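Forum > Structural Biology > Help requests

Title: Can anyone predict the 3D structure of Site-specific recombinase XerD?

Hi all, first post here. I have the sequence for Site-specific recombinase XerD but no way to get a structure on my laptop. I'd be grateful if someone could post the structure tokens.
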Amino acid sequence: MVKANMPGLRARPQKSGIIYYYFDAGGKPRKEIPLGSDYVLAVRKWAELTQAQASAVQVVDFLQLADRYERDEMPLKAKSTQATQLSDLRHLREFFGKPPAPLDNIRPMHIRGLLDWKKTQPTTANRLKRLFSHMFNKAREWGYTHAENPATGVRGFELAQRGVYITDAVFKAVWEAGGEPLRDTMDLGYLTGQRPGDVLRMTTHDIVEGMLLVDQGKTGARRRIRVEGQLAELLARIEARKAGHKVHCSHLAVNTRGMPLTAAVLRKAFVAARDAAAAANPMLRAEIQAFWFYDLRAKAADDVSDRDGGQAAADLLGHDDVRTTSRHYLRRGKVVGPTR
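Reply #1:
Sure, ran it for you. Structure tokens for Site-specific recombinase XerD below:
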């Protein structure tokens, strides 16, 4: 007699009186596996098939992982990070999705192949490896695979650290070539030491009790920057300029009509001012052309470090570890004395 606690075991009495047993494997159409007429042997086979079915692991491929990551994880990132990861995910889908690669079959040699595939763009290649590694760790958390992360131990490309320090002369040349919106935004970026996206998000509502409150979009780090000295003068200048516009908004970085300055408009204005400054200052042309707006964060770090030390620079930039600041932002080198 088939017991109630033996799911999938089916008994089929025949006209001859013999009972044949079957394993119900499910599916559409339903599939039944014959187990014979010997009850003891049938139960033994049923147990083997039940165990095999229970231990079968769903094969998950990279495209399935990519779809879930894009749906569940990417919206939690900062907008700028989302844009970068969407672009990188297209490359990863192309590499691991034609045909779809099962996660359990991806090996370190394939990660090396990914890097070599983008060897002419080493920065992009390293970024793709980092994103893949992060996604694979998520796959392990979600139970998609129990395999070791194949990116572990695979070295990316060695990249030269950006060593451009923006001197006061280069800053002044571009600043003078720009209009008021660019000048105000350059000053705001330098004096606060924040990323361009965070600078563009700053509003008057962020000024509380003599502090400019910063909630960094990339890391979530929070900083309170004292409104004093040149920063206080800048904020007063911005408010005076905004008062002359018919349209008023709370953003600190605004265009000539008083509307919030966008990243695209800032980039266009900066490039135009940089080109004009390079043409007007031939002796500084190379240094000016190497200047990008994001270099102001590194300039702020260097200048604060020279004055108050590396920890002060790390505090301003929102780094928990001063080594992060030293490794990625301090470009001038430590000030030392001569032997004699």
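Residues 122-141 form the longest helix (20 residues). Residues 62-141 form one domain.
Shout if anything looks off.
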